[in-house]
Protein 1
Amino acid sequence: MGLHYFDISTLPRRYDIAWCRFPLDGNDAPGIKLRPVLVRATKRDTESGRSAVVVSYGTSNLKLGRRDRVDLVIQNATQLNRLNLPMATRFDLDIMSIAPWCSEFFAVPNHAESIVTGSLNDEQIARFKTKLKRRETLKQMAEA
Amino acid sequence: MITAARNKAKRAYARPNPDYVVDYSDEVTVEQAEKLTQYVRKEFERGNWVTVEQDS
């Protein structure tokens, strides 16, 4: 595939917000649309300089009242500005993907100066963890 | 405190590409995510991938 990996020293941290070229285009290659993603895990290949991130995708389709109980929603103007998110954003925790940390998949949005535009603060991390617990509870209830 | 430790200098990897547009009004679907998985599958079939950080 010949991907151009970033140096591992630039690998985002868990809870960072990065910008990803997703979804793939009609040819199943990274498209021109950029969306924010929440980094949930990071990986590296010990045999090479390659690295990857596991992400949940952001959408401006908030679905308040339906999804905000189980997804992480950021809509406070101060926090949006701090994270360099141009609009209220819901990170859909249903879907996780692993993506190579490379220039084919990650890019700087026009309104920012770097691919990683911020990190969740302590309150947001706590809220994120609460959503995961709630999801687990709902899953157990559904299985009971 | 955790946040403070994580606040680092901005990391610039490249200049913005004017061909890219910020558009995330649509939700990501399972099918779209699966396409990505298929697209990058070979990248993860070689090497020794280890987790650096993950959800706790």
Note: Chain B has a mean pLDDT of 82.
Protein 2
Amino acid sequence: MMNHRTIQTPLLSLSERVYRMLLIAYPAAYRREYGALMVQVFRDMCRDSYRQGGAAAVALWWCSTLLDLVYTAFEQRRKVRFTVSKSTFMRLTGVLLIVGGAFWSLAAFSQFQPDDHYTYYGIYQLLIWLLAPAFLLVGLGCFGLGLHIRPTLGVLGQWALYGTGIGALVMAVGVVGTSINDDLWNVWMAGGLVHMLALTVFGVLHLWKPALPIFRALPLMLASGWWVMWTSALRTTSQTTNNTLSFLFIVGMGMVWLAIGLKMHRQQSQELVPAAS
Amino acid sequence: MSDAAMRPHDMLPLTPAVFHILLALADGEKHGYGIMQEVAAITDGAMRMGPGTLYGTIKRMLEAKLIEESDERPDPALDDERRRYYRLTNFGERVAQAEAARLALLLNVAQSKRLMGGT
């Protein structure tokens, strides 16, 4: 009895640590009241999943937990009238990008839909459930990054990131809109174009003067990924090759946003230590 | 406001999460994880609440006095002291009964219109 409590693996420990970190998305008062209980339940469910289906079952549990976290955190924030100060928003940047990046990478599996890509059914529905929230979170995260880099890259760098964020938010609207009306595919494309161009400008600026705690060429590499995706869409070879390439590019982009988020979160945590002691 | 002053029908219809938690607590108090397991069991795994949905709903139900925290531990030897247990209030039980009656009525209508399989 109570066997599930004795299982402990690096995967479960890491999962618990990441989930505990993501709880920052909830309002502080809610976190104080229910945070520890939520972590406890998450840990128990992770162990159950692991016992029943191994790492794959834990990954599935993570998918549903991430969705649950985004929607319920939004709900709890809405109740406190979104009283997010500028400093809190900056502190949330890392978490927004971590969750957004994770969603982005998971959404890549939509590319394995074997047939028509222009209607949302089958695995392609991941675009609605994962890519739209990913664009939303990364878009908001870009605004947070913009606030961070202002002292180093000035107004141009800041607006390049705001443009990247606006493009991502427009893409989120486009993804959801396309499910209602196919013509709104153009909104998605327009958002993508704005995102790609603004990210390219930021990438060049960052190459010249690194402002974030990441490899200086990383933003430009991310922008390059968009350019490759954009142009390769015009030069199709076979459907299977295209699907695999798209999958790899989307996973890569998601991982880059996730890495930027982790770096930002680590930097913010280190900055908070002296203040707290 | 006392339980007697609150009318169960004012709370209807309940959201699926609220009704499932009321059902899970109908046969005794449980902690969060116990509620999740019970909900998964009674829905044959179809409904699997995440921690955010579970505690967001519990928070609302505590505010509406449908459930309350319990200090008792059904089996202290097997339990973690940090867990919080929840149980139905008298009002919560009456709300659950009212919702069940409402759903039963709808079920009867569905049966009479031959919308149920095998009827």
Note: The helical segments of chain A are 10-22, 28-79, 86-107, 126-178, 185-208, 218-232, 239-276.
Protein 3
Amino acid sequence: MSALTEQAVVSDTRQSETKAKLAELKYAIYLMRQNPLVLAGSVLVVFFVLLSLIATLVVSPDSASLLNFSRSYCWGSSTFSWTSLEAICPAGTNLPLGTDGFGRSVLDMIILAIPLDLAIAFVIVIIATAFGLAVGSVAGWVGGKFDEVVLRITDIFFAFPGLVLALVFAALFGRTIETLTIAVLLVWWPTYVRLARGQVLVEKEKTYVEALKSLGAHPSRIVLFHVIPNSIYPIIVQMSLDIGGVILTFSALMFLGFSPSPTLPELGNLASDGIGHVFTAPWLIVFPGLTILVIALAFNLVGDGLRDILDPRLRR
Amino acid sequence: MIFVLFGVSAIVFYLARGFPAAFAPWAQYITFRMKPSQIDAIIKAHGFDQPLYIQYWFWLQDVFHGDWGFSNWANGLPTYNVFASRFPFTVELTIAAVIFTVAIGVPLGILSALKNNTAADHASRIIALTGYSTPSYWFAYILQLVFFYYFYTWGLPNLPSGGVISQGLSGAVPAVTGLPILDGIIAGNLAYTADAFAHVILPAFNLSFISLGYLARIVRASMLEVLKQDYIIMARSKGLSERIVIYRHALRNALIPAMTLTGLFVAGLLGGAIITETVFSWPGVGNVSLRAVFQGDSNFILLYTLVTALIIVASNLIVDVMYVFLDPRIKY
């Protein structure tokens, strides 16, 4: 009798699985090409990621700290004033989006801000996912007391009114990018714990898990190499949907006055520059906010489309 | 449920009282006129000289006696009074925002389900996604810019940019319910009611713009689900008009998940929309909570988070109960 090792079974099923996955992928790409919105979203996402990679080449990072109050090109501007130390100019030939209160080009600052916002959003979502997968999958797999405790803790965090926890945390631990990142993480992690737990609970009941168990595979191996890869799609969808949400929340904290420095090029912080000038210099708030909107929309379009593509029930 | 409330209060208590950033935690309980001996007595009475978990116990006792402490920045008024005086404004804003959300979101969802995979469907999807990709603070200022400033400069009828009531009219009617619109109606003061109504439009629309997308998507999904059911085919084969099939048979069942979502919106909004209320200088609890955070007012933060957590937990419960009531197929 040939020794049925876990390896043999797995490599056998894996071959047919890879084939199925490949067909799935081809079909998914076909569907994506059918759906112009997802395509537009993906193009925008790629654009923003590329832009953030070359941002420091396009605009010198020093220009964020070069405060230019000379105001020489502000002559004739309706917002020009000698009294306040501000250098807000409307759009001109070499300033496509005008300047902010520090005399810096708004367009340059937006380009400099995009990598920071994207990086923070990715960091938050990835940490939240990793934590959620770790805690959620263990809770779902083990069940019992541990599951109950994890569930109750997430219950507590779900009962918090949105921003308040992040606000209190940010107010207490100082205004640095790190504290704000942790503050947003604090709001975001329970979703992933619940999601991962739910996925593991569904997968746990399937026959392949039973087969692996009867072969004597270690639970950690089953969860890490079989259950999690099989339940990763909804988590990926959630991640891409959450990037936008995280950018919105983080920039909102910045906008509400938790920015570490008024000159930091961050989209919410740039927009907050315009609070006192909404009616006199609207470009200060319009363009950074619009950038946030477009970035969040791009990720949401991709996430929304991915959900349709990866969820066979929604394919029509 | 009780457990959740204790958990929320313990976390906030630990954060707010354990790390007094700018003020000593008892600063909220004293006034300038107090003698050192009186201050010592207060520190003793609330357990501020004890470890944090014992302080929490003292705080719980205070709370169960109805003593939420004082808010120094609000002229030393009792925190509970500060909260109670602001809460009606949040209620009014919530009601208006939910009306907007349902009035726009549900038709949008129905439209996109009936015209599945057409231009109308795609448009509704874009509106929905744009809604929840929009930074609410930014959109609030855009609304102010367009409907207040530009309309004003173009000489069109414009909407006010903030506040609950115009300066000249404030205090014109007695505060019976605390909701300006309702007070205006009760007093029979038409000008006051109209003015209060004009003030609520922009902030309510700003709030609903973010949530109506979710609602539209949910209505669309459940409508598509329901339209595939056997009883819809039955209704059609009976020869009923499409209108009756959709509005009498399909819509009623399709709206059940939408009800759930609306319930959760109400809960979330009653917690005070911090950003919208701040931008529109709407004097609700969300606006005040931001000030309290900046002023280090742990008393208000504790009361505020506890009340909102209670609302969220209670509304989850109500939604579950409603679900059984609305959908007889569900039995517990």
Note: Chain A touches chain B through 47 residues (CB under 8 Å).
Protein 4
Amino acid sequence: MRETDFVLEGVGHEYRAGTPALAAIDLSIGCGQHVAVVGANGSGKSTLLKILDGLVFPSSGEITAFGAPLTEVALEDPAFRRDFRSRVGFVFQEADVQLFCSDVRDELAFGPLQLGLPEDEVRRRVQEVAGQLGLEKLLDRPPYSLSGGEKKRVAIASVVTMESHVLLLDEPATALDPRSQVWLLDVLEAWKREGRTVVMATHDLSVAAEAADRLVVLSEDHTLVADGTPDEVLAQRELLLAVNLIHEHTHRHESASHRHAHAHGPGTDPDQAHGHGHD
Amino acid sequence: MDIVAMHIPDGYLGPQTYVVLWIVMIPIWVVAARKVKRTLKTKQIPLLALGAAFSFVIMMFNVPVLGGSTGHAVGATLIAIVLGPWAAVIAVSIALVIQALLFGDGGITAIAANCFNMAVVIPFVGYYLYRLVAGDAPSSSRRVVSSGVAAYVAIVAGAICAGFEFGIQPYIAHTASGQALYAPYKLDVAVPAMALEHLLFFGWVEAIVTMGVVAALARTEPALLETKPAAKPLRWLWAGIGVLILFTPIGALAPGTAWGEWGGEELDSLVGYVPTNLEKLGGLWKAGMPDYATPGVSNTLLGYLIAAVVGTVLVVGVTWGVGALLARGRGDDDDAASRSTAPTVPTG
Amino acid sequence: MSAPCPCCQADIAPAVHRRGGGRSLARKTADSVGHAVTDVLQNEELAARPGLLQGLDPRVKLLTLLLFAVAASLVHSVWLLVALIALTMALAAASLVGVGSFARRVWASAGLLAFLVALPSALSWFTPGQVVVSLGPLSFTEPGLMGVATLVARVAAAAGFAILVIWTMRWTDLLRALSAMHMPDVVVATLAMTHRQILTLLRTVEQIHLARESRTLTRGTTRENRAWVTERMAFVMRKSMKTADDVYDAMLSRGFTGAMPSLVRLRTRPRDWMWAAASVALCVAIVIADRAVGP
């Protein structure tokens, strides 16, 4: 069985001349790994995911996927494209972006149908996945009429029906209520057991720590500054401060005051005001 | 829900008119779809959908004009400036179709007529006028002003077309007692009414909206307004001719004969005699459509109109043919309608 | 002149009586946008009721209702047009959409405007003929009034059929019907996406306006409001283009090749054919009757 799914060498990307999004990243992602790419907003996490999915192509450096180079030209070949797209699924940060079909059933069926699977097989998958994610009652509803949490589940389901080996998730936990977050962690665990590769972009360190077995840190100037197990990386407090993933402040308790550093709980926006307790 | 002043509901236009416009629109849609597919490829679907949705939504903004009054804009010129005129044809058509089929605003049989006025006339007049007035590599303020001028003229042009469509109804279909069966106002009322309404009010709304948005875009996302290198001088001519053609129906309103263009009989009644040479030459050329009347059509005004259309088509056709022959000699690339897609915005 | 209130720093201008007071600009737009969104959502509910029209195959329904609208445009006799209006009412009743609200909708969206626009044409100045009604200096002629009546009746009949289409069809079924009628894939796909985007944009627009409404204590000058409106439009435009990129990426990543496939298959039943036959027969009969009655 193949060992690495993706190999990136010196991959950099600029959207327009002078607007860098990523700078010379060296990274390889092994089969079955669950990797969390963490960094502050604007560090290039989403761009990295899009490069992994062949939606954006690097301005410099090279990327190989499943042993073959992943380039714009390569994806123009229908057979390669179908193969690649069936192996890699992307769940976008905003569910709305991903839901464009007329009803939930079609949404779940879109991927498999585009890949050319026979209708019976597609129907079977739709029913199965709808059952797994609790969407049976919503199958005939139009996506725009769903609540935020339901939309997110449909978005994930629409990718799951493609039975991809690799799943790329962009900020999956943002804007999820606590119960949905637990559900998400369960889903991730199931994928781990099934041996699927997961690459998740997030600024939320607690989710990253729980769900991933490897943490990769991107700095605000778009370079890769740390790569290791969650314990290893989270111990590097100075580094995390430097990349704006955690912050410190001083506050008072009755007569004493102290400084401490913390990150933010899951599902919150680091730029908002917050409160916290002490342990 | 309020609608824009130019929407034509069902029932105002007789089948002779609305069917003709369907026949006119279908090839235009086909050509537009081809052009757009060539430049945008598969990306056309989300981009056009956004353009259409945006066009639709613009029609819902209340725009303050004077004091407490507000109006609605169409935004077709704006879309044409950003996406190009052919993409605007599709985007605005889709917005209009959705308005009719989803919200029940504007008729269904009249969809082609509305598309012609708002999704073809306005974008093309607006786009080419904008390019004409803005010129090469314009400054932000010049872009803003040109967009306003273009939008104003374009919507008046569209309104005149709508007025024309309304105004010919009484000639096409009426009972013996003179009762109108469809839209009841003749050309001499319909066209000035639509024109004035837009010259005095809705044209300004359109200009305000277009200028305001272009100004804001010039500040924040100037790449959206970038155009390919400037038009060749011939375009001057086309733009001018285009505008003039649109205004020809107004000629139908003027009574009497143009000064100096009298025929033999009129001279006789005016001054009492006919110069002998004129009498000799007068019978020489048997015109295909004498007196601008169409043989076989007894209603004089309708005959006049058909003659006008035929005449225009012939003039334009011959000019274009000659132009194409000349251009081929110079190897010009005449397709300024293809545009680059909007650049991707970084998401980080 | 305004002065900041010392306790809360809010800028409070002295009350100015504006011409045409009423709702503010922001509120007006937010309201109309809100109505549009509710209309669409209500549509889905109406289209789910177990009435006559809802039970028909979408293609048959669309084609026959269009046929009726075309018939309405061919008929010249006022009385036949009134009969068609009655037909729309009957169909509305049979489809459980509420005849009262149906009638109100037809009148408000089409009938009233037609009446107001056409009425002046009944004056003797426009349409000469035998004067029937005189109100002071204004005299309305017989052909003039008949013309107004014909127009209003026709507009109401056509609008009625159009509204029946909208109220008894789910948008997705409408698209399937269009697709089955060989409308190009690209067009159907774009219509579907546009619909989705419109709802998203409408919600954004509504929120923008409500947010402004809740933060605004003064009405602002026309110029300020204008600047705000156009700037907001530009914002919505930028956001739309960014969304277009993202949506395209999302479609690509699920293997989009150009067509929008669907699992739903449309099937016609005997009742659809009976309905189609009855409609065609009725339309033909009406047009023949109209020609027989004469203009």
Note: The interface with chain B takes residues 15-16, 19, 21, 41-47, 56 of chain A (CB under 8 Å).
